[in-house]
Amino acid sequence: MKLVVAIIKPFKLDDVREALSELGVQGLTVTEVKGFGRQKGHTELYRGAEYVVNFLPKVKIEVAIETEMVDQVIEAISHAARTGKIGDGKIFVLALEEAVRIRTGETGKGAL
Q1: Are 61 and 16 in contact (CB under 8 A)?
Q2: What is the CATH number of domain 2-111?
Q3: Which of 24, 65, 81, 86 could be stapled to 8 by a disulfide with Cβ–Cβ 3.0 to 4.6 Å?
Q4: SS3 5
Q5: CA 32 → CA 19, 81, 95, distances in Å?
Q6: CA distance 66 to 69
Q7: What per-residue string of b and e applies to 14-25 under the rule 16 or more CB within 10 Å gives b?
Q8: CA–CA distance, 53 with 93 (Å, rounded to integer)
Q9: Which pTM was predicted?
């Protein structure tokens, strides 16, 4: 099992969710986050004063999947979240040692 973590632009969330649903991904977790990478933030003008915004709003998606689906999930997220501009985001893949469904006690792939 793997845990796929993607950091994307907020307005791309619905596109990514639809792409994952088409693959048969049954659940995901979404968190609103802030951060920066190579973008290094930007400046905004507010009431005539210029402010530096160091942390940009992003969305973090976490999906627990079977190992066999990793390449398909990465491709779906990449395609759905891509704008071609700086700040499109990152995808991380982590090993997932165990999963337990609290309601039934199922473990492993059955818990996904």
Answers
A1: yes
A2: 3.30.70.120
A3: 81
A4: strand
A5: 19, 16, 23
A6: 6
A7: ebbeebbeeeeb
A8: 29
A9: 0.85
Quick check: helix, strand or coil at residue 92? strand
Listed residue (36, 30, 35, 37) closest to 14, CA to CA? 30
In this structure, is the dihedral angle defined by the CA atoms of residues 78, 84, 89 and 93, taken in order, positive or negative? positive
Dig out the tokens for 3 from the structure: 């845990």
Question: What does the alpha-carbon distance between residue 58 and residue 11 come to, in Å, rounded to a whole number?
Answer: 9
Name 3's bridge partners.
64, 94
Q: Which two tokens stand for residue 39?
A: 């973008």
Tell me the pLDDT tens digit for each residue of 53-88: 777 889 999 999 999 999 999 999 999 999 998 889
